[in-house]
Amino acid sequence: MKLPTRQRGGTVLPGLVGTARVERRTRALLPRLRPGDIAVVDHTDMDRGTAQSLLDAGVAAVVNAAPMISGRYPALGPVLLADGGVLLVDGIGPEGFAALRDGARVRLHDGVVHVGEQAVTSGRALEAADVRAEMDQARSGLASQLETLTHNSTEFLRREEDLLLHDRGLPRTATRLAGRPVVIVADGPEAAAELRLVRAFLREQQPVLIGVERGAELLRAAGHRPHVVVLDARTDEGARPAVKTLKAARDVVVRVDRGGERTVTEHLDRIGIRPLLFETGAMPEDAAVLLADAAEASVIIGVGLRATLEEFLDRQRPGLASTYLTRLKAGPRLVDAHAVPHLYSGRVRPRHLYLVMLAGLVALAAALAVTPVGGEWVDSLRTALTDLVHTLLVTLPVQGPLP
């Protein structure tokens, strides 16, 4: 969406014009964005989930102080934004970021950011072809990323040994999870579509529903009430589910960093919600998986969770080890939503049994009809039906024409 602008004297300058919304933390910026805004962030290797949120907010452009793709791995966010028609400018640096004021009217043209008629800062203007070329180059960095993942996983396991190996430190939910199917819904880029894939499973199996942050709103929008809502203490209040969604849940679990401030629950206390604290360094969706796995759920269906290698790496560095080790711990219990339609065809309904019985009776009648005894029965039945029809035609009064 490219909007022209008119300057003094009626001169129309080229480029895209919009209101700059400036915030280093992209997640904190999302609730303030309006259609046509220009998001100014400092986000290295933008992930797919954040990019989808920017697209949903209707931004016209994203100006990034950091590189969209650093080369460490092929980040999936930039290509999603470029394909969605969003203008991309990156590499303006800390000085350029500091020069842009939140709420200012700015114009972008060829990677240069103007305020009024003055060029304030500049960066690289990225087209879709440029993004794809950089993604191809970044794939060579996957090996080093996997080496880093190995080191981080060792450190994460050391810090979370009691939780991962002995299930210590888990909150006790009022919702019973043991032996029941559990569906965990996170706010992934394809979560809404994946939720539609498991509609039959939700309707017929009545699983426990766990909404992770905005995933709880996806459940409500689809007509389901989440039984458990998992929140992250680091998420701003404006990005959390609505109060009515939180109050409708039986359990609200807040993930807090080990040794971190616990005053984050004061807002929930003020609105009448007494949350359960889950002290861990795991990501919130991983904390939800750990809750269900430790409670020995019969199966865990993941909606909006990252499944492929690129999606797995396409997230902030602290979450890599958390997701990796959580998936290993859940093991065969965890099933991706895309696999459910192939594994679950639906519960057997009464009409299915009636159809089978009817088919069996037809087959039995056909088999009997070709035997001597069956032939006699058919002849007797035909004669009886003929006599019955004759009797009805003779005894029933013939009704004359209406006056």
From TrEMBL:
Keywords: Membrane, Transmembrane, Transmembrane helix. It comes from Nocardioides panaciterrulae. Pfam families: SteA-like_C. This is Putative membrane-anchored protein. The lineage of its organism: Bacteria, Bacillati, Actinomycetota, Actinomycetes, Propionibacteriales. Residues 339-388 form the SteA-like C-terminal domain. The chain crosses the membrane at residues 353-373. The keyword Metal-binding does not apply.
